[in-house]
Design a protein that fits this description.
This protein has 115 residues and is of the alpha/beta class. The chain has one domain (2-109). The chain is 37% helix and 28% strand. The chain is built from three helices and six strands. A six-stranded mixed sheet has the order 1-2-3-4-5-6. Helix 2 crosses helix 3. The radius of gyration is 13 Å and the shape is globular. The N and C termini lie far apart (32 Å).
Length: 115
């Protein structure tokens, strides 16, 4: 049961991210088959990785390491309750962290941070 909830959370975060780009008239590519879901916007030169609730910090670090070797800016969308863990796991990496959480059934994003 928990896996279905975590997958649903990731879906909602991806949908909110895509909607934000759509409001700015940007085109995105969503890869839900990557180790962690990603949203790429070539117009912004950005790849956003959704750190799903059940993913281990080591899996996140591996995914981020493979993406930071590209010319893209890498942002990691982190459940707000795991932001401290993300800071430790990704310290020194060339990424931006952005917390997310649910409030009144909607996904909300916090301020971007550097680990």
């Amino acid at each position: 049961m928990a896996l279905a909830i975590e997958y649903h959370d990731a879906d909602q975060v991806v949908a909110a991210t895509v909607a934000g780009y759509a409001r700015a008239n940007r085109t995105v590519i969503v890869d839900e088959h990557a180790p962690l879901p990603t949203v790429a916007c070539s117009e912004e030169g950005r790849i956003e990785v959704v750190w799903t609730q059940g993913a281990e910090p080591a899996a996140l670090a591996r995914t981020v390491a493979s993406l930071t070797a590209t010319a893209w800016d890498v942002w990691v969308l982190v459940p707000s309750e795991r932001l401290g863990i993300a800071h430790v796991a990704l310290r020194g990496c060339n990424v931006t962290l952005q917390p997310w959480w649910f409030e009144a059934g909607l996904v909300h994003f916090g301020r971007p941070e550097i680990p």
